[in-house]
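#struct-pred
JK: can someone run the complex with pyridoxal-5'-phosphate? inputs below
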Amino acid sequence: MASPLARHFLLDPRVTFLNHGSYGACPRPVFATYRRWQRRLEAQPVAFMDPHHLAARFADVRRSLASEVGADPDDLVWVTNATAGLNAVARSLDLKPGDEVLTTDHEYAALEKTWAFVAARTGAIVRRVEVPLPLVSEEAFTDAVLAGVTARTRVLFLSHVTSPTALVFPLAKVIAAARERGVLTVIDGAHGPGLVPLDLDALGADFYVGNCHKWLMAPKGAGFLHARRDRQFLLAPAVISHGWTEAGGSPGPFGQSAFLDAFGFQGTRDPAAWLAVPAALRFRDDHDWASVAKQCRNLASETARVIQGITGIPPLAASDFCAPQMMAIPIPERDPVALHDWLLRVHGIEVPVIRWRGRTIVRLSVQGYNDAGDTGRLVAALREELGR
Ligand SMILES: Cc1ncc(COP(=O)(O)O)c(C=O)c1O
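RT: done, structure tokens with the ligand placed:
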């Protein structure tokens, strides 16, 4: 990887790394900050873990994140990852037999399991609408989703940026319409922060869960849960510990809201990834990441165009609905595991190959450490494979 920014990352230089989307990658100075927090914790764990001190540290870093994602800091809590935050929401809601959870055919497989688990225990039913492809307008998306709403729909669960198809779902109208119908909105924003502009207050979802360890490039284990103030009483963390109060209400046992206290204190945990989030935001500022992201977006979409030229298979969406630095590129049918392994073993390229609804998809991520040499290697390898 020959981008001048590649030297800031810990990635193995022998691998052409085109899969930022799965786990992100943390720049060296951000990782150093993370390690410093861990050492401070080890130096004096009792003082470090004092709930009032820790609450104050969390409040500082929540403020940094809040200005990045357009939220009030007191509506945000730290979770380990998007899966944990969405589990907390799904497993808190008081669903009854016959209640419906409406979702789409583009959701992340692990979260489909979460809702199946919840449905099996509550008697709720998960319904899935098909999002029409190619996705070309907000109206088409909104109409398809709302067509699935019935009198029994209690929850609408949608990705912001989809995992298998790298689409940006246009959420604003559908969230407003759900609200009018009294349907709770739960948004899987695992890929949102740092990839697409966020204004969570304006978006108005009841619950939005995001990751800082993907596109914001924080260390792994930095997720957050945003809940509207008037919905926070519905939630309890999976782990009930010192911070929880039976009566709910505010203040909680450590003087913050019940929501902040219950989620803030869940037993002994390593908070270093959350505390390093401001360093990740600073790294992006220091390196003019808006410009870097724009170059990455251009390189990703140009690469997708070249591969589409080879395959003749059209894109899954109009460009407005494709994730800026992550392109899902359909290719002729292949065994996804075999193709992934061949790309890695023979060409040293790490890129996900996905089977989704009968399609084979190469999901290309382009981040600041990549350059045109990296994407060129992918194009050459696919040309070789598809020419067979
Ligand atoms: C749409 C979506 N949701 C959830 C997740 C899970 O994220 P995490 O493993 O950080 O919980 C992913 C991971 O790639 C994802 O793509």
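RT: quick notes.
The two ends are 27 Å apart (CA to CA).
The first helix runs from residue 20 to 23.
JK: thanks, will look after standup
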